[in-house]
Design goal:
heterodimer, A: 443 residues, PmbA/TldD fold, 3 domains, six-stranded antiparallel β-sheet, 11 helices, B: 478 residues, alpha+beta, 2 domains, seven-stranded mixed β-sheet, 22% helix
Amino acid sequence: MTLPQNALDLAAHVVARAKALGVDEISVGVSESTNTEISRREQRVEQASSSSTRRLGLSLLLDGRWSTHSTSDLREDALDVFLRRAVDATRWLEPDPDRALAPAELCGRGTSEAALDHYDRTWDTLSADDRADWAKRLEEAVLARKDDRFISASVDFSDGGGKHTQVTSNGFSDATEDAWFSFGGSVTLSDEGGRRPEGSSHYGARYLSDLPPVDRVAEEAHRRAHEAIGSGPIESGRYPMILANRVAGRILGTLAGPIDGGSIHHGRTCLGDRLNTAIGSEHLTLIDDPTIPRGLGSTPWDDDLMVARPRVVIEKGVLRMHYLSTYYARKLGRPVTTGSASNWVVSPGPRDPAELSRALPKAILVTGWLGGNANPVTGDFSYGIRGKLLEYGEPTKGLSEMNVTGNIATIFHQLAEVANDPWMWSSTRSPTMLFHDVQFSGT
Amino acid sequence: MQDLTPSVEAHFAGFGVDDDLVRAALAAATTHGADFAELFFQHSTSTSIGLSDRLINRVHTSVDLGVGVRVVIGDQVGYAYTEDLELNSVLRAAATASEIARGGGAPHPVSVLRRFPIPNLYPVSRSWGDVEIGERLPLVRAWEQRAFDLDARVRKVQVSLSDGTSQVYIARADGVRVGDVRPMTTAYLSVTVEDGDKKESGSYNVAGRTGMELYTPERQERLAKEAVHRAMQALDAGSPPAGEMPVVMAAGSSGILLHEAIGHGLEADFNRKGISIFADKMGQSIAHDTVTIVDDATIPGSRGALNVDDEGNATERTTLVQNGVLKGYLHDQISAKQYGVAPTGSGRRQSFRHPPLPRMRATYMEAGPHDPAAIIASVDRGIYCDSFSNGQVQIGGGDFAFFVRYGWMIEGGKLTRPVKDVNLIGNGPKVLAAIDMVGNDLEIDEGGWTCGKDGQGVAVSQGMPTVRVQKLSVGGGR
């Protein structure tokens, strides 16, 4: 017998084969994707790649023992050896009573493929010439703006699409398809002291037509490179912080660790006992919404294959949810929610971002990050920043070689206002934010 | 020296990869002409077991198989890969790469085969594939128990032991045929500790391109002891002051400073494109004359060790900065041709799914003349950094940062109180020029560092003697 070529049949075949080997429960996923990338520099193609991939992953339960496995060697004999070894490896483990497939009645699709709208059918017919044309037009737009400081520019266009099929031994069987497009450019300029500051602009979207015009990308790359010219640190101190919408994900993302079930179970959290208490100001409302049409983090089911649905994470500053997969919910003896984030949507405020700083004598606008990290146990974070000093809303100096320092559990209490400009090209859709009294270190 | 190539060829013959397939694929890859073309076959197997909640309750196994085809015309690259090693699939990938790179030049003839012996930098007594899962379990259990035994304040312990072997076979249009068998292993231990209402975590890891030999009694003891020590140190640690101050980098993992401040900037692709801050500094003095920096693929058993690089070129110890003067870049095949120099064996890739790039291997600063204790004693007020988690650099501007997980305040020439969780930021050339004392205590760190570039992660090592940096910006709390 030869292996089925159809992914659904292949996954079902593996489920049956594993059951025959003595596995109690199994979940099998088959991921198939095709990706293409083209980059240009000095008015010609620098690198292009195109590839298709197919990979099988599985998690299995045997006598209360749980394991995961993956392979790209899908030859029939090799797959059989792979399965036997997976089962043998699992037998060495100790039983973990909290491992189980999610109950069948909680599993399934929350949103139809049509409603998720995350497969742009134009991707099926996008030709090599189309891709080359996108990259070429973007490069032309970037080069049209070069000035005396210009050293180099590179642009890229990439896209991909594929299908993920999942079958379990307790009755789940479904598939979801998506596509994505990404493009952007980087510009390098000359500066004093041999510095070569770089500015870049990149966008990603589910639909090709949702990508911004090439002129916008080119203008942003040049503008950001120019803003870095002559940049440097200012005196250490406490300043209001304006967090640009497209980079707000870094600070919001520091919340993800401490509210994750695994962190809570292992005691690595500063927010494990803060459910239904205020962890921020009333200006912060955060929704996890996997159902957003064309959302980059949208999904019909979660990691446990449970129905994916919108959830309130923070409501007017009050923490309403911990991320609890079936496993960690059982470990903690609490009701399951979902194991990981999808799209994070911060509710916008009423005013334009420019209004946030207009009345402030001094504020630091953060437009980029450089290194840094956060400690989920204490909540302390420290990140390198790039940005601008604003005086009554007007940029007066480019900033670099500076750090921002704070604590996850307290920084959002300093959130004074959010603007009306949610960033739509990311799974974190945040508006620009204003925080008061934030510690920056420079000179 | 050794010749692994015949055994690797025999291994891939089991997948139907023979000389006929290789020649046909290279012919397809060079249909439209090529200055250079290669096939990179890879078969990797890995195992990871995990312990938490006092249970060895996780195992993950992985198999990865495929071939990447690269066609280079000038500095233009066409790349394709397939996970199916059947002839037709490999020919399709080769034709795709050729079409992408189409340059209109003359087809490159497949030359007489060239084979060369390579060093044996990572001998193992047994391949990881021959080590039973059951042999790993007592190690993991013993590490956990040791961590609990070290201090009653240890509340939770998590352990993972990961290992694997990657067989690679590189066949080039210029006739080079070379194979390598690359082991790798990493052990990671983390603890959560509580003391009254204070809670912290600490972790330590050891890694190497080797087999079970890595886990000597001394190294196993260090794995548990360092994780617990770091967590305990963190319980009492605070935030340092904010602003610019002298920084003493401890021997070992402080090599992250070199990796970020200068290593990436000397990868030749950034320089041939003119976007590195070091692009026009070759031959110039960029550091104090006690500073010599190398990138070395030849340290036996280190994560950065490579018998041969991922383009099939011999590896070496490359001097980047000698007595303060910039001497060299890290070259892959493309940049070496453009600069008219020999490749430095620095062409590396994450897997067959990626084209190679100039990358670091093991980057370190050679030992200098100073006593480490005298370096600390020379600082009136600053910080001492001895454990790091991550870093980043902006290649053109030269700004870089690294995150200090644990360190100490230096006050009056003495280590006075522990500090933690602070980002340090500086500018590469300025910081290099500000290194004014170099210790005589070079250490190559034993941790499992991974370097990211263009979406590709590769295993690296780094090392450093104790050094003093006159001034860095510290992201402290007040």
